[in-house]
Amino acid sequence: MGPVDRISLMLDSVEPPPAARVVHDRPPLWAVWSSAFTPTVLIVGWVVAGAVQPPGYDPLQQTISVLSGHGVAHSWIMTTALYCVAVSYLATSVGLRTVHTSARMIIAFGGAAGLGVAYFPQPAGGSTFDHMFFAVAGAGLLALWPFVMAYWRPSIPLRGDRASGWTVWQRLVSREGLIVCGLVVALSVLAMYVTAQAGMYLGLTERICTGLQALLPFFIAVGLRRTAVVEDSDRAGSRAC
Length: 241
What we know:
With 241 residues, the chain is mostly helical. The chain has one domain. The protein is built from 9 helices and no strands. Keywords: Membrane, Transmembrane, Transmembrane helix.
């Protein structure tokens, strides 16, 4: 039995999963756009800010926070991007109205932590408690919300004959799909912690981790809209019969 199956069984022991065919209102299209804006502005921000740095900046070793820190050339670029990312997370938490309130609140708190990261920049040497607190809190919250959302989603098999009747998007926003996504993000957070302790490739692992965390709400928003379309089509077909 794999880790996904174990976590799903743990959730089942607390409360029976909802029916597999649950029709939800689709999230608004602007929620998809706001969730797409998050990874876009984040990646563009670190690419542009890194490109204008003088020789010596190493994106594989140095973090995104360095680009918005004190004494860094054009630090306003990454600082503005971080503020935009935080606001985008907050907007996405409002727009994902089909997601349970508890998971949406975690996304919102993760966005609020992002505001703290931008407001308390990293000093020229080392870091500060304020900056690290908000950075760690944000990473932890954005790694937690897929598991919280999974608790309230229907259970759908991801493989085998029973999985053939479900679309990729339905599997993605199912309990098992969200657990898989959560495990991937959690592993990226763990990798970031390990590289921080080892002092190697911290910049690379941080970019991978934050990129995955920023992309996940977008895929979930698209999945919820596509799933609703499929389920609505199924209902229309049933009525026609």
